Amino acid sequence: MAKVTCARCGRDIAMHELEAKTVARRGGFDTRYRCPFCHEDVKDVTDSLA
Ligand SMILES: [Zn+2]
Predict the structure, then answer these.
(1) 50 C-alpha vs ligand 1 centroid, how far in Å?
(2) Alpha-carbon distances, residue 42 vs 26, 27, 30, 46 (angstroms)
(3) What's the pLDDT tens digit per position in 5-47?
(4) 47 CA to middle of ligand 1, Å?
(5) How far does residue 31's CA lie from ligand 1's centre (Å)?
(6) Distance 5 CA to ligand 1 centre (A)
(7) What is the pTM of this model?
(8) Given this model, what pLDDT does residue 34 score?
(9) Which residues make up the environment of ion ligand 1, defined by Cβ < 5 Å?
(10) Cα 1 to averaged position of ligand 1 atoms, centre (Å)
């Protein structure tokens, strides 16, 4: 089971617990993920999902 650790609050976050946010960008859309506990951006998620 893939998990990530939040850099800010240090909690382990399961992939399904991440807050996904899709934002419009030039040329398309970008999905970003946030910690559900402190709402810090989680940046290394894409490696885990790839
Ligand atoms: Zn956090």
Answers:
(1) 22
(2) 22, 23, 14, 9
(3) 999 999 999 989 999 989 899 999 988 899 999 999 987 665 5
(4) 18
(5) 18
(6) 8
(7) 0.69
(8) 93
(9) 6, 8-9, 35, 37-38, 40
(10) 19
Token couple for 22: 């899709």
pLDDT given for residue 27 in this prediction: 94
Q: Biggest alpha carbon distance in the chain?
A: 34
Domain ranges of the chain: 3-44
**Which string of b and e fits 19-50 if b means at least 16 CB within 10 Å?**
eeeeeeeeeeeeeebbbeeeeeebeebeeeee
